[in-house]
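Box 3.1 A note on notation
Throughout this textbook, protein chains are presented in two layers. The first layer is the amino acid sequence; the second is a token string describing backbone geometry. Keep the layers aligned when reading.
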Amino acid sequence: MERILYKFPLDSSINLKPLRVALGLNRTEFAAELGVSVYTVQRWESGGRLLNSSALKLLEHLLRRRGVTSDMFSVSANVEDRNNPPGVRIDINY
């Protein structure tokens, strides 16, 4: 299980996939929440494109709506195991 530390304001080089998985969203749902295409999410996750400032603000709003109130939080996620539901959690005890 991987643990990744995040803090606000989010950076354009953010490791997006563990965060998306921790939110319990597939790429289609995540794209819809942010108002972007699934292809854009795929490119963000593969490192082919960095998130711009507008996308980072939308992501921050999404996290706030999902209950992340701390300016520092971590994500624990096993994003590689496709046979089992990922054990994911957002920790906001910083």
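The first strand starts at residue 2 and ends at 7. Residues 23 and 37 are 18 Å apart (CA to CA).
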